[in-house]
Amino acid sequence: FERKKRELNINLNDVQKRAVEQTEGPLLLLACPGSGKTTTMIMRIGYLIEEKKVNPRRIKAITFSRASARDMMERFKRFFPDCVPVDFSTIHSLAFTIARSYLEKQGTTFELIEGGGKQKQSRTKSFLLKGLYKKVMHDDCTDDELSALSTFISGIKNKMIPLDRWDDLVGPFERAGRIAQKYEQVKKQTSGHLLLDFDDMLTLAEQALKEDKELGDRYRNKYDYILTDESQDTSLVQHKIVEHLVVHHGNLCVVADDDQSIYTWRGAEPDYLLEFKKVYPNAQVLMMERNYRSSKEIVELASKFIKKNKKRYPKEMHTENSPKEPITIKQLDNPKSQLEYVTYELLGEDRLNEVAILFRNNSSSTMYVNELHRRGIPFYMKDADDKFFSHWIVEDILNFMRLSFNTERKDIFAKIVLKMNLFISRSMLTQFENTETSGNVFDAFIKTVDLKSSQIKKLKEYKDVYDKIPDMRPAQVIRIIRYELEYEASLKSRAEKFGFRIDSLFGILDILEGIAAQLRTMVEFANRLKELEQAVQNAKFNPPENAVTLSTLHSAKGLEFRRVFMIDLLKGIIPADEDEGDIAMLEEARRLFYVGVTRAKEKLELLSYGQSEGKSKEDSKFVNEVRSLLLKPNKLQKEQQPVREAKASIPLNPNGIQDKKELTVGTIVMHRVFGQGEITKQQGREIHIQFGKVEKRLDIEFVLSKRLLEAVEV
Ligand code: ATP
Ligand code: MG
């Protein structure tokens, strides 16, 4: 074991050593990011097997997510290639096994209603919740309400609040507690058969361990040692399951960092750790404060930053690591320049698998996916957001476009007329659909349906707009749909009525425009969306080697990268608007930011932008704080991108101009970094290109050999 540690170049410090060797009895390891919690946990498992000769099958390691189970398994195999690996799994999968035995024993059948897969559409959690919402509220449930409701239910079940008290709870909206109660009933309607969501597994497993002595003992006798990582995000019901399992031996090692607790909104119970000694009076509590992961700059900044939280277990994170690179804070002009900056930097990286782009919201990823895919930069996404491509806004835009190919298509018209800013009612539409008509749909609609003069006027205008669409580039068409066909205005009025978050909807339109920007036709655009959806699937299930990681801050927990870009660090995003005014939520937002910062080993870049779609944007207050925390505050710079040679390992753009003859004055080109410009002059070894307001002189040979320019047809 000693030799192994030397080989791995890991010289355990005193506390780590104690945590490894103190195998018997309860142990809480409360420690800073990068202090070796996960490493220690793996070493402890290795020590149990190699030194204490414990059968690996009698050790259970519980991780937070399936991804971290995989991550830990890989680390374990790297450390102990000759050992039979122990069982690394999530608490959910353990709970599922227990719950299944319990139900089988009782002769109860069940079906899962969450998590995708085989279940019928009418038997999914969202479908049931939507139906109950309608029954109780006499209205349709919006996407935002649905997800809030689902999180609320998850939270109360994880907190083990008894069903009869749900009604009194303050939920995301009035009567959410009532809907939640009904949801519980609906799932139990037929006797001998249950509908189960993920949280039910936990509840059932806990109940089984508590009430069924025979079954409980079976699982209690199954493991002699239990270890749980990232326990700051463990909920009460999950803690209880663990408590039941260790009753006989008390050999429990709990590893946590309360400063990285980022799931309280889903019912995580970090306070439990502070009570650990009450539950396990003979517990040892160890602290680890030395960070082995990050450079001095990063550790010092992070440590100062997290101390602003009032509610925390005091710790002093420090490091012996040397300084590496200064922390970068950049406010770029707009989302596009931020994207260009990041991609340009990636083009200069050989080892992309050591780099991550982290964001607060999944919606940030789509623009990056588009750009990385276009440039052939390999990427990996752990929790890819493929829902974007099936969002109803995306469907709407495609339908608006489809109609332009044939303005006689009643079926397509029917899909979008209610989405135009016309206040057409469903009954008017039905009347139209039931009447035999021919020719242009706008004319036919005016002829068939009894309309106000203002509606007729608009329909005529829309018809004229449609006449000019077919030859246009897709980005322009999207703008026309937004403004001339008034899709945005209608979204706004519907948002008011149904309470959507309008910013996120407009954000989707911006992303679509971004994707369309480099394309020539609407067909190309539709195909591109398909292609990207596929690319996202691949990035998730089939990631290429040496790929840059795209991840939300939440999913990046526990991981480490040499270089980290944190993007879209804006006011309203982190902290989110809904965090403002709530101290607990602001503290959680700070912890989330802290998780991001502490992922970086050598280089941390905090990025934001000054405006988007003509609206000016403010930096996240966390960014401002970091600015003032840094010893020599970086000035707020709108930096020029440095011209730097892209490394040869980066694939060249196959459509890039290779022949000098194509570089004639007047040609419109797309530069892989500077964007679209016009060639204004050719002089000796240089060409001059006007990019917006800036003219750049570029070395012709360099530009050709790196295929930096692509011709754009106008
Ligand atoms: P997080 O809170 O982010 O999950 P952690 O506390 O689990 O972090 P680890 O991921 O285990 O930290 O370790 C961080 C890094 O420090 C890893 O690269 C690990 O190899 C290294 N490390 C940990 N302990 C030591 C040690 N004693 N000597 C050298 N390197 C170490
Ligand atoms: Mg860890």
UniProtKB/TrEMBL annotation:
Query: Which domain of life does the protein's organism represent?
Result: Bacteria
One GO biological process term is: recombinational repair
Q: Which Gene3D superfamilies match?
A: 1.10.10.160, P-loop containing nucleotide triphosphate hydrolases, PCRA, domain 4
PROSITE patterns referenced in this protein's UniProt entry, alphabetically: UVRD_HELICASE_ATP_BIND, UVRD_HELICASE_CTER
User: Which GO CC terms are listed, alphabetically?
Assistant: cytosol; DNA helicase complex
**Enzyme Commission code(s) on record:** 5.6.2.4
Entry keywords, A to Z = ATP-binding, Coiled coil, DNA-binding, Helicase, Hydrolase, Isomerase, Nucleotide-binding
Q: Where does ATP bind?
A: A31, C32, P33, G34, S35, G36, K37, T38
Q: For the UvrD-like helicase ATP-binding domain, which residue ranges apply?
A: 10-295
Which reactions are catalysed by this chain? Couples ATP hydrolysis with the unwinding of duplex DNA by translocating in the 3'-5' direction; ATP + H2O = ADP + phosphate + H(+)
Under Gene Ontology molecular function, one entry of this record is: ATP hydrolysis activity
Keyword Transferase on this protein? Answer: no
Query: Which portions of this protein are annotated as coiled-coil regions?
Result: 515-542
Q: What InterPro entries does the record point to? A: DExx_box_DNA_helicase_dom_sf, DNA_helicase_UvrD-like_C, DNA_helicase_UvrD/REP, P-loop_NTPase, UvrD-like_ATP-bd
Keyword Nucleotide-binding carried by entry? yes
UvrD-like helicase C-terminal domain location is 296-558
Family that this chain belongs to:
Belongs to the helicase family. UvrD subfamily.
Please report the name of this protein according to its UniProt entry: DNA 3'-5' helicase
Q: Which organism is it from?
A: Filibacter tadaridae
Q: What gene name is listed for this protein?
A: pcrA_2
